[in-house]
Design goal:
164 residues, alpha/beta, five-stranded mixed beta sheet, 9 strands, 29% strand
Length: 164
Amino acid sequence: MFSFLILYLLTVILIELYNARLVQPVIIFVLVKNSSVIGFRNMHKISTSVTFDECHDLIMMKVRGVATANDVVSAYEKANLYAKKHNSSKVLVDVSELEHRFAAIDIVNIMPKVVHHIGNLHIARVVGFEGYMHDLFLQKVKRFNISAENFECFKSAREWLSRL
């Protein structure tokens, strides 16, 4: 009974922290062995929204959360499908609230898949302060002669795309 109470209180605390946006989403897995909680596992979860801006003829995509390498590939696949649907070659991607949960070497490994999806697009990315992975992504994508740039604000990104 005591271990159940501890588990219940821990779950309530995690839910409250998550609702206050103080922790990342987690999947709780519990194995009770000799009345003790074994552990927790992080869940990689992203939220993606995509819209078409008719005035500027561009696709706008917001990606937030905690991403795996496969999540990054999937996001750019969605952008490509949406761009084809609206006959647009300009994509503004806001990744300022995206956290990468994969090794830097994985960017090299996923780049051929990403390039397959964005090869015919112009990509303007609004990036956050943790720029290392964003800068590495941009460096690798440019090696494939993709038209892409990172920006600190939405306005600059949109202006760059409007000049193309």
